[in-house]
Q: What sequence folds into this?
C-alpha cells in the first residue's frame, strides 16, 4: 500500500502538458501518480479536498529564514507600526523600560521615508534609551543607527574617532562625532559587539522562522548569505544551527543556504591565469546536501540599497548632492573572490542593486566564463533593481538569472523612486523585461526586509502598485500564471533543483499549498484576499487543515 492520495482538488501542476489534475498520489514524500494513474484503493489514506485550489509549495528564492525567526522577537519598527519619528522614539522608550539592566535594545524595519526623510540620531535615541545600548536596523538591512551607549560598547567614547571600514560610511557632525547612522560594512563596528549567537540559538531561530513561513504556504527557501555576521548572516555557526534544526525535525521548510563569499578561501596552491580557487574546507561547494538542507551558491554584497543611497549607480541620486553610492569591496577583490569561486565550481549569487554595480558583476562573470566556460552555471544577480534594456540583453547573453522582489514595489517603491528621480524610475524593479529576454526569473521577498507573504508578492508582481497608489511601469506587470510559475518552477531552477521541486508531477516532492480561492480564476483585484488553508510538505499536512 502507498501512503496517501489527495482527491477532488484543483491541482495546478505547472506542467504544460497536464496543467490541471484532480487527484494526487503520494508515497515516501514524493508524487507517484496524478488523476487515475493509480486507484485510491492502493493508498492507506484518502483525503478529500472538496474542490480546493492547490499550487506547488511556494519557493522563496531570496529569504533570510533565520532573520525571519529573529525579527519576530525584535522590536518591530516597520511602517505598519511606525510612521513618524515620535512613534519610533516612543517604541524604543517602551522597549528600554522593560529591558533587563544593561541589555541591548534591538529594533528592525524602520524606513526614513516615513520619518520625515531623516534617520534617528544617536542623541535622539540617548534621550529615550534609559542607558541601554540601542541598535536599530534599517528596512533595507544595509544600514543601521545606534546610540551613544552602543558606540561606547564598541570602544568609541562619545562617538569620536570612528575608524570606518572600506565599503562603509559613518556620517559625523560638525564636531567630528558620529551622528549615529552606519552604512553597509560600517554596521559591523557596532554589530560585532552584540553577543554572537550560538548554533543552538541559530537553530531556535530557524525553527521559529520555519513556522512563520509554513503559515504562508512556503515550503522551500534560499537563504542568501550565512556564516559572516559582519556582512550578512546570523553567526559564524549558521550552518551548524541549520543542521541542528534539521536533525531535530525543526527545519520545517526546505532550505538551500548560501555561504557568504568571505567564508571561502583558497583550497590549495592551484592557480588559473592568476586566480586562486576559492572554496570551503575539504572542497565543499554548491550542491552538497539533501532535499531538506543543501549548500547553494556563494553570496556577496557588491553594493548597498537604493533607499539608503548606497547602491552603486551610474548617475547621482536626487540627494545628497554628488552621491552615487559605492561598492562594498574593491573591484579587484570582487574579481579574485568571485572568479576563484567560479573556477572551483561554485554557483555565484551577486547582490547588485545599482546599475553601475550590475556592470561590474557582468564584467566579472564574462571573465570567469572566458577562463572556464560553464554554460549551465546559472550565476545569479540578486535584486538587479536598476537595469537598462542593454544591460538586460547582456545578462541574458551571459546566462545570468536575475532575482527580483515584487513586494519591494509596494513597500519600498515610492521611496526608491524619490531617491533615483522620475527619469530613472522606469528602470526600477523590472520583471517583464527579464522574462521577455528569455531569463526565467524566480520570485522572492528578501524577508524580513518585507513580509514573506507570497500572496501579497504575487499581487505586487501582477499590479505593480506602490503604497501611494501609483503604478510603477505598467509595461513590466506579470500575469498571475507567470507570477506563480516564478514562485515554483523558476525558483527551483534558480538553484539547480528543478528535477525535484516546482511541479506536482510524479517524481517530484509532494509539497503544496491549499488556497482559499483559485488565483487563476479570481479578478486580479482579489488576489490579496486569498488565504492559505493548509501547507503540505512531503505529503504531510504541516499547517492548517484539509
A:
Amino acid at each position: 500500500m502507498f501512503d496517501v492520495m489527495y482527491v477532488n482538488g484543483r491541482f495546478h501542476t505547472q506542467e504544460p502538458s497536464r496543467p490541471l489534475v484532480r487527484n494526487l498520489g503520494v508515497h515516501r514524500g514524493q508524487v507517484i501518480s496524478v488523476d487515475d494513474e493509480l486507484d485510491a484503493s492502493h493508498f492507506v489514506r484518502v483525503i478529500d479536498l472538496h474542490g480546493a485550489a492547490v499550487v506547488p509549495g511556494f519557493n522563496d528564492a531570496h529569504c533570510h529564514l533565520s532573520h525571519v525567526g529573529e525579527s519576530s522577537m525584535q522590536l518591530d519598527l516597520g511602517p505598519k507600526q511606525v510612521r513618524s519619528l515620535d512613534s519610533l522614539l516612543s517604541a524604543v522608550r517602551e522597549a528600554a523600560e522593560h529591558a533587563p539592566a544593561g541589555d541591548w535594545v534591538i529594533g528592525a524595519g524602520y524606513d526614513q521615508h516615513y520619518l520625515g526623510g531623516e534617520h534617528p540620531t544617536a542623541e535622539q535615541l540617548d534621550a529615550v534609551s534609559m542607558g541601554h545600548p540601542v541598535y536599530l536596523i534599517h528596512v533595507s538591512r544595509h544600514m543601521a543607527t545606534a546610540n551613544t551607549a552602543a558606540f561606547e560598547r564598541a570602544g568609541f567614547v562619545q562617538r569620536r574617532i570612528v575608524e570606518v571600514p572600506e565599503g562603509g560610511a559613518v556620517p559625523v557632525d560638525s564636531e567630528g562625532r558620529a551622528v549615529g547612522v552606519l552604512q553597509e560594512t560600517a554596521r559591523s563596528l557596532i554589530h560585532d559587539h552584540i553577543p554572537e549567537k550560538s548554533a543552538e540559538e541559530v537553530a531556535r531561530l530557524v525553527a521559529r522562522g520555519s513556522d512563520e513561513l509554513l503559515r504562508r504556504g512556503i515550503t522551500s527557501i534560499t537563504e542568501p548569505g550565512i556564516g559572516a555576521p559582519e556582512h550578512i548572516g546570523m553567526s559564524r555557526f549558521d550552518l551548524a544551527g541549520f543542521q541542528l534544526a534539521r536533525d531535530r525535525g525543526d527545519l520545517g521548510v526546505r532550505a538551500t543556504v548560501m555561504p557568504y563569499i568571505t567564508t571561502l578561501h583558497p583550497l590549495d596552491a592551484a592557480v588559473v591565469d592568476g586566480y586562486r580557487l576559492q572554496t570551503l574546507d575539504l572542497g565543499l561547494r554548491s550542491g552538497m546536501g539533501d532535499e531538506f538542507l543543501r549548500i547553494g551558491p556563494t553570496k556577496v554584497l557588491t553594493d548597498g540599497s537604493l533607499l539608503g543611497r548606497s547602491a552603486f549607480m551610474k548617475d547621482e541620486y536626487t540627494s545628497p548632492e554628488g552621491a552615487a553610492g559605492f561598492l562594498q569591496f574593491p573591484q579587484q577583490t570582487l574579481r579574485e573572490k568571485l572568479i576563484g569561486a567560479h573556477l572551483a565550481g561554485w554557483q555565484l549569487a551577486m547582490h547588485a542593486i545599482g546599475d553601475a554595480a550590475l556592470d561590474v558583476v557582468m564584467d566579472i562573470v564574462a571573465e570567469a566564463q572566458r577562463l572556464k566556460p560553464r554554460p549551465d552555471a546559472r550565476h545569479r544577480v540578486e535584486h538587479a533593481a536598476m537595469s537598462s534594456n542593454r544591460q538586460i540583453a547582456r545578462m541574458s547573453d551571459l546566462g545570468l538569472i536575475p532575482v527580483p522582489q515584487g513586494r519591494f514595489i509596494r513597500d519600498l517603491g515610492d521611496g526608491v523612486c524619490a531617491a533615483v528621480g522620475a527619469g530613472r524610475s522606469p528602470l526600477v524593479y523590472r520583471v517583464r523585461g527579464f522574462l521577455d529576454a528569455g531569463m526565467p526569473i524566480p520570485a522572492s521577498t528578501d524577508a524580513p526586509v518585507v513580509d514573506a507573504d507570497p500572496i501579497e508578492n504575487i499581487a505586487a508582481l501582477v499590479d505593480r502598485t506602490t503604497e501611494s497608489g501609483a503604478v510603477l511601469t505598467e509595461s513590466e506587470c506579470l500575469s498571475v500564471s507567470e507570477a506563480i510559475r516564478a514562485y515554483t518552477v523558476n525558483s527551483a531552477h534558480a538553484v539547480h533543483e528543478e528535477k525535484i521541486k516546482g511541479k506536482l508531477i510524479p517524481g517530484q516532492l509532494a509539497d503544496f499549498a491549499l488556497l482559499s480561492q483559485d488565483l487563476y480564476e479570481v479578478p486580479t483585484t482579489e488576489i490579496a484576499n486569498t488565504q492559505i488553508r493548509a501547507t503540505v510538505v512531503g505529503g504531510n499536512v504541516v499547517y492548517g487543515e484539509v
